[in-house]
C-alpha cells in the first residue's frame, strides 16, 4: 500500500542526485575558470586605508585592529604618513591635522599658513611640532556625522603600525601629493590616459572617490567608469 512517505522517497532521491550534479558542475567550472580577473590571476590585495575607518577614527589602534580581525588574513594596513618637526612619521589622514586630532586644545590660536600643492592653506601641520609636543594630542573622528565615542586615541607612528601588522605581510605607506612631479600633471588628469599608464604600470591605486563618488552629505553616487 502506498502512502505519502513512500511517494516522497523517490522524489527526495532525485533531488539529492540533482544537487550532486550541480555541485559537480560548479566544481568543474571552477577548475577551468581563473579565480580572479586580474593581470596575474591572483586575487586583488585588500588594503585597509586607516584601518576600519568607517566606524573608528582613521589610523587608530581600534581601526587597524578591527580591520585585521574582520578582513582577509593578508590585509595590508594603510598609513598616510605625516612628518613631525623632528622627522618622525605619524599615521594621520591629512596633511592638516585640525579635523582628525584635538591639537587646537593644546595649542590654541597656533595655526600657520603654507602653500600646499599651489594653494595657500591655513591650519595645524605636524611639521610645526616635535614628536614630544604631540605626545598628548589625541586622534578624533574627522567626519562629524559619525560617532565620536571612540575619540581620544593616541596618534600612531609608522613603527606602531608596523608592530600591529605582524605577522601580516606588511603595511602600505602613502606619502601623497596632488601633482605628479615627473609630468607636472594632476593625478586626475593622468587618469584620462589610462592606456599610456598601462605601458609602464601593472596597477594603479586611486582614492575611492574616483570610483564611487559621494555627494555633499557623503552618500554614495553611481560608480564612475574607472
TrEMBL record:
Tell me the SUPFAM superfamilies matching this sequence: PLC-like phosphodiesterases
User: Do the record's keywords include Isomerase?
Assistant: no
Q: Tell me where the signal peptide lies.
A: 1-28
The reaction(s) annotated as catalysed by this protein in its Swiss-Prot or TrEMBL entry are: a sn-glycero-3-phosphodiester + H2O = an alcohol + sn-glycerol 3-phosphate + H(+)
Which EC number(s) does UniProt give? Answer: 3.1.4.46
PROSITE patterns recorded: GP_PDE
InterPro entries, per this entry? GP_PDE_dom, PLC-like_Pdiesterase_TIM-brl
Keywords carried by this UniProt record = Glycerol metabolism, Hydrolase, Signal
- What Gene3D superfamilies has UniProt attached to this entry? Phosphatidylinositol (PI) phosphodiesterase (3.20.20.190)
Give the transmembrane region(s): none
Q: Which residues form the GP-PDE domain?
A: 44-226
Going by the entry's taxonomy, the superkingdom of the source organism is recorded as Eukaryota
What family, per the record?
Belongs to the glycerophosphoryl diester phosphodiesterase family.
Q: What is this protein called?
A: glycerophosphodiester phosphodiesterase
Which organism is the protein's source? Stylosanthes scabra
From the broadest rank down, the organism's phylogenetic lineage runs:
Eukaryota, Viridiplantae, Streptophyta, Embryophyta, Tracheophyta
